[in-house]
Structure to design on (223 residues):
C-alpha cells in the first residue's frame, strides 16, 4: 500500500506551482543532543527551508540538549519518564505536541521506546537515526555488536519509526569501512559526523514532501 508521508501540498494557480507548508518540527532527546545541534546548524545554513524547529522535549533533567535549545531560543519541555508507565509518559508528550500543532517528530538520541498509540498518531512522520546499516545490528549496542561480529563495514541509517525496534522503513544510509582494531569508542567517533550529515538531509526530504512509503520501502522523489 502506498502512503504519502505528509499530504499537505497546495497548488498555486497564479504561479502554476505547488506550495509546501512549512512543517513544525519537535525534537526528542535524552542526552547531549549533537544530532539536535546538526539540525539547528542546517536550519541556520538555509538547508531546511520547509522545516521549523519549534520545540525540544527531553526526559532527562540534565540532558545537555537543553543548553543547546536555550542558546538558540528554542522552547523546551522536561517530561519525566522515570517510574512512569509508557502510555502515561507518551500521553503527556502527545499533549505538548498537539498543543503546538507539531507536524514532524525527530528522535535525536531519545532513549525511550514509543507506544503504538503514539506512533499511530504520527505515522510516517517520526524519524530516527541509528548508528548501523540497518537492518543489520539494531538495538542499543550497535557499535559493540558490529565489532563482535567482525564486520568490515558500518555506518548509520535514518528511518521512519514504527512499532518495532529500529525496524521502520529506511530513508537514507551512509557507510564507511572499519578496521579489525576498531573499538566502540573509535567507531562511534567515526560514525557521528555521518549522522550529522544525513539526519538533516532526511528531515529536509520529509518536510519538503519528497518521501513516499510503499509496502515498507521509501521512494525519494526528485524535483
Amino acid at each position: 500500500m502506498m502512503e504519502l508521508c505528509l499530504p499537505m501540498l497546495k497548488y498555486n494557480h497564479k504561479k502554476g506551482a505547488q506550495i509546501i507548508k512549512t512543517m513544525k518540527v519537535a525534537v526528542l532527546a535524552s542526552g547531549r543532543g549533537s544530532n539536535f545541534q546538526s539540525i539547528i546548524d542546517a536550519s541556520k545554513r538555509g538547508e531546511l527551508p520547509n522545516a521549523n524547529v519549534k520545540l525540544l522535549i527531553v526526559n532527562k533533567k540534565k540532558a545537555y540538549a537543553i543548553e543547546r535549545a536555550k542558546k538558540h531560543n528554542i522552547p523546551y519541555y522536561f517530561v519525566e519518564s522515570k517510574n512512569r508507565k509508557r502510555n502515561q509518559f507518551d500521553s503527556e508528550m502527545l499533549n505538548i505536541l498537539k498543543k503546538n500543532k507539531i507536524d514532524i517528530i525527530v528522535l535525536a538520541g531519545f532513549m525511550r521506546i514509543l507506544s503504538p498509540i503514539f506512533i499511530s498518531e504520527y505515522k510516517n512522520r517520526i524519524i530516527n537515526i541509528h548508528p548501523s546499516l540497518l537492518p543489520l545490528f539494531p538495538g542499543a549496542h550497535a557499535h559493540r555488536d558490529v565489532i563482535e561480529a567482525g564486520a568490515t563495514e558500518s555506518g548509520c541509517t535514518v528511518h521512519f519509526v514504527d512499532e518495532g525496534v529500529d525496524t521502520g522503513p529506511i530513508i537514507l544510509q551512509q557507510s564507511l569501512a572499519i578496521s579489525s582494531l576498531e573499538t566502540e569508542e573509535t567507531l562511534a567517533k567515526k560514525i557521528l559526523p555521518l549522522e550529522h550529515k544525513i539526519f538533516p538531509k532526511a528531515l529536509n526530504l520529509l518536510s519538503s514532501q519528497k518521501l513516499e512509503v510503499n509496502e515498507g520501502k521509501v521512494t525519494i522523489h526528485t524535483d
